[in-house]
Design brief:
167 residues; alpha+beta; 5-stranded antiparallel beta sheet; 4 helices; 28% strand; flat
Length: 167
């Protein structure tokens, strides 16, 4: 089997990967459809609904990756960039409706300085939209009289919509 896989070109290996992925997704979806016919308790129903949401997200993710692959290097590069950016933003910031509640300023040599703030506008909850805001402005001076300037404003919002969560 390994020799056969090694004999395939990279393009054929990716094709095989997508055929396998979509085949497995079809099998899991068929099993989920059969499972939906059974009667369940409310706890089991919640678990089943969560599974359906996760399966739907997997289908969407697989479809996006397939579309990026068939669009060529440009589409794949754009998708990689978008996912990397979204991942970094989600990892390095508080969720909507949460913040460190801070204001700070700093200064340094060569005209370096900056200010930043973070605040909660509204906490989420039953039927409420969670909102938070953070901002930062800075100037970085260098000994050769060059400088760098940066400003960043981030407004985050999230709320419950149709049994799911939008962000």
């Amino acid at each position: 089997m390994t020799l056969w896989l090694q004999s395939l070109s990279a393009y054929q290996q990716v094709q095989l990967l997508f055929v396998t992925l979509f085949g497995l997704l079809l099998l899991v979806s068929a099993g989920a459809a059969l499972q939906a016919l059974r009667e369940r308790s409310s706890r089991q129903e919640d678990s089943h609904q969560r599974f359906k949401r996760e399966l739907r997200a997997t289908w969407i993710g697989a479809g996006v990756f397939w579309a990026a692959w068939i669009s060529g290097p440009g589409g794949a590069t754009l998708l990689f960039g978008a996912i990397s950016f979204a991942g970094i933003i989600n990892v390095s910031h508080y969720a909507a409706g949460e913040a460190a509640q801070s204001v700070s300023a700093y200064g340094g040599t060569q005209g370096t300085g900056g200010v930043s703030m973070a605040t909660v506008i509204a906490k989420g909850g039953e039927g409420r939209i969670a909102q938070s805001l953070s901002a930062e402005v800075e100037r970085i001076g260098f000994a050769d009289e060059s400088e760098g300037r940066r400003a960043h404003l981030l407004y985050r919002t999230a709320g419950a919509v149709a049994g799911g969560q939008w962000k």
